[in-house]
């Protein structure tokens, strides 16, 4: 499921050349040595390969690169996908070395599976804060176009209005050979490292609530229900905004509470109206009940957070 990548701000594809890319432009030594980070997505299966038996592979990659490598837990996915998050921190050179080790390993496994002599064109999906995407795009797309031309990789940025409610990150997808992806990653990371807001967010939690796995967003049922699934990006704090989320039927009791006490507290605390579908009325193709939250943007966010915390607590206890 890759709904977060359905359209892009900038998606020019450079003509493919097999010639070697030009050497990287040298960033200032200060930027190169300053600690920074990068986050990207891997499938659950690929995450196992990165960790290795007893953590041997990830330990080896950290030792070789000098970077710190962290993975979200096996139930913590990037919203809208079933992919886990890898966060690598260190200097730019350390990070790039670690990224290359990881991608090369995954690519080798892809080679062995496909048994093809042609190097497969794969995707690398970077997670970038929305506030830092402008620097990558540049004025009228000039920066992203120069990165595409320089690296020969395809670079696409998911649109801001395609985000799940409360998620302030966008996906920057790099397509190409390993060499092309690494060159593009180098250019993007060097640019991000110049952004003080980006480097300051290094200590923020790198994964998303576990409940995003248990709580799935309902897709729109038609033109008349365009607000379902994702918050409609209204600039004004109107009171008629609405978002519908799905909560596993087994967790609905936690949201409602004894005699409806919990849902009443959530409603009063957030200022949002909350409606839960009748028993047996599920989101199509799931056993998730529909929870519709209506109110101002702030009220919806507060109510959704409270609901996620309830479900998250239940998920954590089930995993222990």
What's this entry about, in short?
By secondary structure, the chain is an alpha+beta fold.
Describe the structure.
The protein is α+β, with helices and mostly antiparallel strands and about 325 residues long. The protein has helices at about 30-35, 45-50, 55-65, 90-115, 130-135, 140-150, 180-190, 195-200, 210-215, 250-255, 260-270, 295-320, and strands at about 35-45, 70, 85-90, 120-130, 155, 170-175, 215, 240-250, 275, 290-295. The strands form 2 sheets. The chain has a 6-stranded antiparallel beta sheet. Helix 3 (about 55-65) packs across helix 4 (about 90-115), helix 6 (about 140-150) packs antiparallel against helix 7 (about 180-190) and helix 11 crosses helix 12. The longest helix has 23 residues, at about 90-115. The chain is globular. Mean pLDDT is about 75; it is low at about 1-30 and about 210-240.
Give the CA-based shape: globular
Low-confidence stretches: 1-28, 210-238
Spatial strand order of the main sheet: 2-3-1-4-6-5
Helix content range = 25-40%
Biggest pleated sheet: 6 strands, antiparallel
Question: Could you spell the SSE succession in H and E letters?
Answer: HEHHEEHEHHEEHHHEEHHEEH
Number of helices: 12
Give the averaged pLDDT, no decimals.
76
Class by SSE composition: alpha+beta
Q: How far apart are the termini?
A: 28 Å
β-sheet strand percentage = 15-25%
Task: Give the tally of β-strands.
Answer: 10
How large, in whole angstroms, is the Cα Rg?
21 Å
